[in-house]
Amino acid sequence: MTTSYQALTREISRNLTPLRSHNAALMQSFGALSKAAMAPGALDEKTKELIAMAIGVASRCDGCLGFHAKALVRLGATPEEFRDMLGVAVYMGGGPSLMYAANAIAAYEEFSAAA
């Protein structure tokens, strides 16, 4: 099975349209939470995105892999930084996270090639 993470992130965004329309307060609140969590502070945005990706891998969330890979490419995360983060994700999530680490690499490489 081959996943296009660009297509997946577009599909998820499109599928969230009803929530944006009918649960606007929820979606606005989630957006505000995201903005506050990712705002530079003691950790920069790239470090926070690496953490988010590691959690996505450990949680086995395909959508998370797509959205956070896209952000990490935009923020200039290097392949070395990405692989180092995956080591921590696998450590924390075990064998299932190792399988998702392969998917995370595919997402990162797909968005890198498109950049």
From TrEMBL:
The record's section on InterPro entries has: AhpD-like (IPR029032), AhpD_core (IPR004675), CMD-like (IPR003779)
What PANTHER family does the record tag this protein with? ALKYL HYDROPEROXIDE REDUCTASE AHPD (PTHR33930), BLR3452 PROTEIN (PTHR33930:SF2)
Q: Where is the Carboxymuconolactone decarboxylase-like domain?
A: 25-105
The protein, known as? Carboxymuconolactone decarboxylase family protein
SUPFAM superfamilies given for it? AhpD-like
